[in-house]
């Protein structure tokens, strides 16, 4: 029952019983979908209040909990699952900052079919960032679930009061407790520090190691939770890895590093994955999209696309201005917006973008996600701190009307629970990389793009950082299933899953692949009027793939050589139905 040597400090153990379970912190489906869970004293939230808010925020950030979305009636469920949690800080050798690891051990753990699901948070979210996938699927069937935040999360450090986040989620001053992230001592006027972006570790390069450590931590904590059943090992406890988005990329990284055969199978949803020499790196196509997509989406072919036009049906003025600025920079030659948009569209098409991905990326573009991602990730790849981010960017508190100012104390107190892990948001703004022209964000976008395209030695750390994130080939016998939305506009399949699956097959692997029609990247966006009408959620297909993996591992069903891709239909303005999803019938156990 020893604690793994990569864990430093305490293991925090908490009980979660009546009114405070593992899956929803006692909120249930209606509570998860409702107003933010209250905090009695907002400037001094308790660890239990922060945990409840963190679980709620993670559910809302990933799953479609809207009234038409079908969660809990067509697919998925949020039953009460009592149990215990074991949480600690874990360290990769040589790292400057830890990653969180967490085991949820349900009281009704299935001792006859010992199962550990291991997962990594999506995006830059905190430790519960994959609960709607891994927790929702694993906990009700008696699996324990091990999580890692993979070096991301809302453990922001504020130099204004020299505080960061302690293991229990509350804020503490530097030196008074072990913090999940604290940058070198800086002045009170320094930038707010974000663990994913400013730790100096380039966490993405180690996401696979984070997942494998989480699995090892999970086994060790199962020894503590059920000592009469110990020891728990990969030989007597099947370990299933699953994740979505960045978490999907993390479990694929883990699969390639799994020399000890810890993993029994992998299901990755919409993974951010890069294979050597194939596809396009996230920073490459995101920095390109940041410049070109606002203008390309002004093309008439996107007139009916949700979030691509103003309420009056017009091209957003900022997007038309981007077309004009591309002309001023001699990047397009046409004299008018229509022609400029057509040229921008052709530029992206030549780079591998499909019409489907571009149309869905209208949401990503309207919400300024490209600039947010590229500014933050450039800092992570180049291992920069809060005060020396590339291209003049920095994070600071948001005061009135979006101007720089001190962060409200209550907002700061709940960062660990509420923040997405990559600002802006929750009282933190992204500043710099702009000018006072009619297109103020273009200079920063061009600067970030130049980091990728330059051959100057000063920009080589960015390309080196990106290269360090490529995956390795998993063992050919590992059951592996990739599920990706055909309409993904953030991590398009042509840059991610398709090159990965082709690479595995060329290397002798036999991955399964579902490219799900009408599915896109953000299930949570499906509650937006007009957006959900055109798309289907991806989570039910992840659950179905995990069901099939379970049938293979525990019920003797053969691992198929091929599975037909579902043919779903968008729900339109009506509520989602199971027939519309075209989910496979219950998997039938067969001979081993």
UniProtKB/TrEMBL annotation:
Any single biological process term in GO: butyrate metabolic process
A Pfam family hit: 3HBOH
Molecular function terms, GO-annotated: hydroxybutyrate-dimer hydrolase activity
Cellular component terms (Gene Ontology): extracellular space
Keyword terms of this UniProt record: Hydrolase
Protein name per the record: Hydrogenase
Lineage: Bacteria, Pseudomonadati, Pseudomonadota, Gammaproteobacteria, Lysobacterales
